[in-house]
Amino acid sequence: MKLYSYFRSSAAYRVRIALNLKHIDHQLLTVNLLKSEQQSADYMAKNPQGLLPALETEQGVLAQSLAILEYLEETYPETPLLIGNAWQKAQIRNICYAIACDIHPVDNLRVLKYLTSELGVDDDAKNAWYRHWVEVGFDSIEKLLSENCQFCVGDKPTLADVCLVPQVFNAIRFKVDMNKYPKIAAVYQHCNTLSAFSDAAPQNQPDAV
Amino acid sequence: MKLYSYFRSSAAYRVRIALNLKHIDHQLLTVNLLKSEQQSADYMAKNPQGLLPALETEQGVLAQSLAILEYLEETYPETPLLIGNAWQKAQIRNICYAIACDIHPVDNLRVLKYLTSELGVDDDAKNAWYRHWVEVGFDSIEKLLSENCQFCVGDKPTLADVCLVPQVFNAIRFKVDMNKYPKIAAVYQHCNTLSAFSDAAPQNQPDAV
Prior knowledge:
The structure is a homodimer. Chain A is of the alpha+beta class. Chain A has helices at residues 10-21, 41-46, 65-75, 86-100, 109-117, 123-144, 159-173, 182-191, 195-198; strands spanning 2-5, 27-30, 54-57, 60-63. The first copy, chain A, has a 4-stranded mixed sheet, covered by helices on one side. The interface between A and B is large, with 46 and 46 residues.
């Protein structure tokens, strides 16, 4: 398998973590979002959506990080990341989507670019926008976590942690005050003691700047 | 089961379609987003995320439309909406997330409100924003559909159609030119010939204005 990745892409970061947790052998190919390489003809031929990540498998190229995560879950069921019965899986997916639908897309690089280039929003207002959507989302997620938890749901890493950790990484980068979210911060810290998470972190990628 | 819904909520509209396709008996309770009833103490006690939809089941309340759809898929496997092997399911989910992550959240009511109230964006620029993100997303999805298709993937309705139809409904409302997307428009038209889709449409809801 080949994963098309950019060190700071939250969505690629999710898939990097899952591949590590599941011990799936893969090759990492880097695509520079800042240079818009995701819209090059070569990459668009792989993923016509022109977004990261994409996973090249023997059957073809998969796009959309959450579709990739669900696919890996079905095809590599050892080390499951959706654990339990349908109700418990729904709790895990609830947190995944609270991040992957409600926070990340609104704060995505292309949205921030539109704010500044098309709407003339200045840097301060752009950063306030970023923090606003993280905080609205984290306010909700903090309520969903248990006291003294090490992971979002249960006592093992799940897809919820796979989605949460990259979002916290970016929240810290945009100076969100994590003291307001002690449970989220504790999960982030604990996950990063595991090499599957820390090896996937942006600063440990070959294209890190 | 009780579904908390608002006639124009795209995310609630998805769940309404899925409940109909799966013939799941349920009660509809309306929550008025324009009056911010989703943030009332009563509703927040049900769904601390303060968003629509929520599905009240015997086990408790589920939030996040995609988590609800996956839960219904696992617990009501008759009339499957994720059809085929892992690869085919990934194609279905790819389209779901291209809508539910890449288009809908950026054009959500609360984001549009922030644009106007916090950033002073006028109505024309707000509507241009709306259409921009729909068009970027539909440009991608149009490439993923087959010629002369009746549904997004295969010859039966799937979760991809469940997500696409509400997004097209809103695109038309915001005057996106659907002539640019003949394959998407054909799927939308065909789905709406089925009562599971048309019964779930905003204009056919008890709270429709």
